[in-house]
Amino acid sequence: MNWTHKDLLDIESLSIEEIRHIFQTSSRFIEINSRSIKKVPILRGKSVVLFFAEPSTRTKTSFDMAAKRLSADSFSLASKGSSLQKGESLKDTVLTLEAMKPDAIVMRHSLSGSAGFIARHLKCSVLNAGDGWHAHPTQALLDGFTLSRTWGDDFQGKTLLILGDIAHSRVARSDIKLFTRLGCRLRICAPRTLIPHDIRNWPVEVYHDLYEACREVDAVISLRLQLERQEAGLLPDIREYSVRFCLGQRHLETAAPGVKIMHPGPMNRGVEISSNLADSKDSLILDQVESGVAVRMALLYLYLARPKHEQEIPEV
Amino acid sequence: MGLKIFKNVILNQKTGFLLVEDGKIVDFRQELPEDSSAQVYDGRECHVLPSLIDVHVHLREPGFEYKETIKSGLAAAAAGGFGQVLAMANTSPVNDSASITEFMLGKNMESHPAGPFLYPVGALTRNLQGAQLSPLAELKEAGCRAFSNDGLPVKDNELFRRAVEYASDLGMIVIDHCEDTYLAAGGVMNEGKISSYLGLKGIPSVAESLQVARDILLAAYLDTPIHLAHISCEESLELIAWAKEKSIPVTAETCPHYLFWDEEIIQDYNTMAKVNPPLRKKKDVLAMRNALKNGVIDIIATDHAPHADFEKEVPFAEAPNGISGLDTALSLCLKLIRRGVMELDDLTWLMSLSPGRIFNLPVNTFQKGDPADFILLDMEYEWQVTPEEMLSMGKNTPCMGMELMGRVMAHFMGGKEIFSRF
Fold it and tell me: Which of A82, A203, B111, B152 could serve as B128's disulfide partner, Cβ 3.0–4.6 Å?
């Protein structure tokens, strides 16, 4: 497949074929990541800037490892200690970075639309590692890829529940788009204060009762509850939230057989997911992390190696 | 000053001669008057309309001269057809004292002594803080024409009530920016389909309509006029219609952007369309056009809010609110006529006679003795909105690049030419 995109900003811009191609490419990297020597020279001489203007551990490490395994040079920049803190505008910061000739900028930013904003100003590739509440396409792709390792290509008609703070979640927005495109039926479950006002326009069924929401589901993605939602007056307190919405084994008795549990991390054990369930055999939470590196390798490869060099992934 | 004859001008669908003497209208006739000493000006078959009045502009001076100055703002006003503008108080320092009011008027006289004329709107509360009344009598004395806390609405209902009462003693009207700041807190666009899709915090329409209801009930209780600024949503219109049925003394304005665009144009995080109150839904746009016809809306004002380019070149949530409107308002509103929403007379009412009446400003009805404040409008003139075509320093408008039809070709105040494109 000839990869024509310059940027990865959201899921919408990817066709179903492109999504499947990303999954297939990721499978090759899963295999490479299981070797004793994991480094391949595909992106030798390429440089990738990891610009995380918002704290991140797993996404940043995952991208960093992905770049290094492909032999690209990665450079990290955090907002703390950067000139953004000195009042430099985002546009000036990224134009400065681009002047140093990176091949891609991977950015995490707290404002929705910021990835698209910098992409409009830059000639290098921009990979969105999460922008505000808007999109987190690599998370959605790794979620999809993780399930594809269990389900194969068989997403059609599967029912997936996303549990938790939908309104403020870029993961939820990107997951809903990805899994809808793959043919899944989507449910969401949360108190109304954590659901967008205009939810009628979304291709989802809305639940406020977790038992009902879990009936016949094939997978549940539980989202992290940001503790500041309580301060904003959207929740009475965390304890009451956990009584209503903490996913436990008891909710899954009526779920489809073989139901899978996922969480984008970092988890609040006992708040949005019970500790036992997170560690159970149905949990794919650590598989998601493993898949994350492979998916990000696949994306860096697709965006940076092709079409200019037409390099092939080395065979075993 | 001798007689001036403006030949080849169209007034009320009749081509003829407009006669002006000593800054006043003398007559409009269809035959050439026999006065060889008169100065003759060729109107080139333009429509002649009264000079427009904009009751809601931000001219940014003092304090934000990098966005706009009184000189550049009034130049844009002249070119856009506006001869009188009410300038809001959110300058730096805030216009809450005679010295700032006098400074603004002085700048007007320096740059545009023959017009357009700026009428400062005094801050209703000191430093727009919503805590203590400004010296309203002092502000009136210095030349303020109305009072408003525009941009920072007064949350305290008791203080707002007292402000309206105190202003009414002075024969002054209070303009309210209707927004419940709790409901709107943190919001950056209309709450709805697009905000949830883009992951932006929304401003619900009820944040406006709730405050509109407050103002209507206060105006009724006090039997005192209140003017409602930049109305954006259908629910507010329903409340205003009810108030007018009951003869409650409220008046209301809307802006060109609420008549032509809805939230859909923010699809791509378009900061040029970021404005407060936010662009609403299609149904609100349609209701707004209807409200122009049935008298629920009294005035079209621009809420001209110029910003520097770099301020809008940021992620959406960080961009300042506001659309630069003086250069394009009339040309945009002419679309309403071509689309059959209204006649040219109705537009003249909404953009000149009605605001003049509500804010007690001189207006030109082309009767003998009226001030000779008028524009020559070429209804068929086609132009493209470009930064160079705009005289405002603020190029922040969703119209940028758009083709518009109809343009002010010349502008006269007191019979003197203050702008010409001929």
Answer: B152
